[in-house]
Specification:
368 residues, alpha/beta, six-stranded mixed sheet
Amino acid sequence: MILSKISVINFKNYDQAELEVSPFVNCFLGKNGMGKTNLLDGIYYLSNCKSFFNSIDTQNIKNEEDFFVIQGEFESEESKENIYCGVKRGKKKIFKKGKKEYEKLSDHIGFINTVLISPMDTNLIYEGSETRRKFIDLIISQYDKVYLQNLIQYNKVLSHRNAYLKSIQQGGKYDELSLQIWDEQLIPLGVKLFEQRVSFIEEFQKEFDAIYTTLSGGHESCKLSYKSQLNEHSFGDLLKSSLGKERYIGYTTKGIHKDDFVFEIQEKPLKKFGSQGQQKTFLIALKLAQFKHIESKTESKPILLLDDIYDKLDEERISHLMNQICQGTYGQVFITDTNTERLPSYFREKNYECFSFEVEKGNLIHES
């Protein structure tokens, strides 16, 4: 899907803005803090039903306003669709495709795919395993509805199991049959998710390797690996062996909700041994591999969102990425930059269509 028009009302630092965009490259230009990234986040919202930067919906409402609205018009060769996102304080978030409201937000995931590259990607290296699991889960969920539904159901059953263990910890009576009911639901869901993650990482590693080698010049090797308790033991055995501890602490300690994805460079942890440049290159390669993987699974290019890309890569790597963009490798692209001339000049020289929007304090004051 290609975005042709987007409008926002009371979203972050915007009172109101509406713009028609190019199917090729769009540049949001201006000083830091003006609202460039907020426009990227608006596009991300319409894809993923949530903000990339702030998961609390009401905190994305401008100042003391009561609501925000984001609307986008998307086109493909077969159809044109309007997507509506509305958030009002104290009310349920509303998502619509056309005039029909989604009953479940998960039904929208995968309809519009986006890949966002941001300075916040360093969280994938420095934060805990939950951040990396969410990243991998989002990729798979964008093309596999069964995986997404199994993941949602797994988390629901896990929540019930944890609530039961908590009640035991607080003095409730232990009933083996009650726990068995939750285990019989949790185990098959966990095994399915585990198997799909194993399959995913095998495919994704190849795509990542190719991109990282190109960006780094092949000077070092990097590796992604999937760390799971299910690699060594069956899920059922893990739950049985941990039952005594779990009854004492009141939550489930074993399962795919404890999985992690390990990042290595030269067979050492990227977090400890990777230079700043190596970490930036690793993260760019990770996100571009996400793009390629989704494209291969859906036979459609995601929308690529590049936030402050010049802060992440040196001139050589920037040049390579921009050349790829001008060859149409990444389809529709949105880029932010603090330099108002650099990107427009580059794309003019390459004779590649580029719309430029200058942003100042939540206002679009120039476009070309």
